[in-house]
Amino acid sequence: MTLLYIISLSVLGGILGLLGALIIVKRFAQNQERLMHLVSFAAGAMLSAAFFDLIPEAFEHLENVSAQKVLLYVFGGLLIFYVVEQLLLISHCHEGICDVHKARRSMVIVGDTVHNFLDGIAIAAALLVSVPLGLVTAIAVFIHEIPQEIGDFGVLLQMGMKRARAIWWNLVSAVATIVGALGVYFLAGAVDSIEVSLIALAGGGFIYIAAVDLLPEVHKELRRAHIFSHMVAFFLGVLVLWFLSATLHI
């Protein structure tokens, strides 16, 4: 049953996130402002998942471990995401179309695949702690995947890739979410309490995604109306994840 949950939630976080992105691109391709509000919403959701769910669960389940060590795991997760992005020379675009992107198409695909693999690790690690925590984590990943996949899809199209081929490669990279999740599932039996350490790392990764990848995109426009509307979208993301956490009693 646990394996079924892991596969199902990985599909929710990865593949359904991609499908959601394609639907939104088709519907709102000409409205960049609406697409950008998804970025603010996703940032609020990711931070909420980190601070309301993942990090508190790590503190609760890592027995006989100091708070400093738990926070080192969190910081380690932040560093992992930073290093991965820097080594792959990827700066994820979260708008429907990116004007400038120097990375080659292959690097865009590899970067997206690695990112999805790490998302799968986060989902499975959270699920092995508790089903509600896994569900909230998968929902947070799903919400983030939509603007991320919109950006990656736009980059590939701008680089001259055919639409059908861009969809195919994004689908292939989305499968990495399932691969990462399955890796944690089979490794958990061999390494004691690995899932608890991994949810702390995932918490740091979520903080990095929200603070470094998502929010800077929103700050490119400084009109008052823009700032206010994106603040509303951001806090809506916070409230939605907080409500899910409270409802599921995490």
| Low-pLDDT residue intervals, each spanning 5 or more residues | 94-103
What summary fits the major beta sheet? none
- What is the N-to-C order of secondary-structure elements (H for helix, E for strand)? HHHHHHHHH
Radius of gyration: 17 Å
Tertiary shape:
globular
The computed structural class is mainly alpha
The helicity comes to: over 70%
What's the number of extended β-strand segments? 0
Percent of residues in β-strands:
under 5%
Instruction: Please work out how many helical segments DSSP would assign.
Output: 9
Tally of structural domains: 1
Distance between the termini: 20 Å
Give the integer mean of the pLDDT values.
81
Keywords: Membrane, Transmembrane, Transmembrane helix
GO molecular function: metal ion transmembrane transporter activity
Membrane topology: Multi-pass membrane protein
Pfam family, one: Zip
Characterise the protein shown here.
The protein has 250 residues and is an all-alpha fold. The chain has one domain. Helix content is 82%, strand content 0%. It contains nine helices and no strands. The longest helix is centred in the first third of the chain and has 30 residues, at 32-61.
